User: Fold this.
Amino acid sequence: MEEIVLKNSDIKVSRICMGGCPMGGYGWGDTQENELIGAVHTALECGVNFFDTADTYGLGQSEITLGKALEGKRQDVVIASKFGVRIENGKTFYDNTPQWIEKALEGSLRRLGTDYIDLYQVHYRDRKTALEDVVETLEKLKAKGYIRSYGLSNIHKEDMEEIIPFTGKFASFQDEYSLACRKNEADLLEISEKLQMTPFTWGSLGQGILTGKYTKENVCFESNDRRSRDIYVNFHGEKLMKNLEIVEHMKEIAEKYEKSVAAVAIRYILDFIPESVVLCGAKRPSQIISNVEGSGWSLNREDVEKLDGISR
Assistant:
């Protein structure tokens, strides 16, 4: 398993991170706690030490399940969680105020069953609270030992001006990126280089379309799966057909390297985005085993160019 040290920190993480959204038990079809916990344990056995979650995944259920799975293993893992999205009285809104950061952190620590979080990330900026106030609060929490480092999520090029004064403070940032979604590619590359933060990619398997398990005949989801909705464009209309074309090329490459199709999707990101970490959600151990095949090798230039061309 490849590892890197997050920028502006001493935290060493596996370059493949298990994403915790499916652990929330909501919006990804049927999930079973025993399979989710089994997936975490399989990840550990395969050299994954990095787990990413958020307080809003399943309204805290993801953190509860992750904490249960990691019981007795805390010293061996790196836990990342997020704050900044509040759901109250049926309404969802963003809140980055110091008061909410402290309250959100208290809740996350309790659900995770730990006394510190390694990487605490702003899930979304609220566009109201000054970033200076956010950083000041996070620095205080870091000094008290409640967090080891902090990062950003869902930021783009237009946010750089606000972040520049705090260069050297944030360890990481994350955005959606995959062979099925390259709209944030330039931002990922520029922000990581100019602001010296480790780039993470979420949606790295295109919500599953890049695993090779789907065809135009079997893309059918129950109502309890968010991918049934048109907003998840990877599984609908022309975008679906384009993605399936990409997958056909990926299958050829996967066969060539004797890897899973998912591993090719992951490897492309690790090779294309320097010093990146790929976040991949998983519901069961078999998905982890497929994902970790993305580590420890590289695509040759010809195959990178082929995937680059077909996915643009």
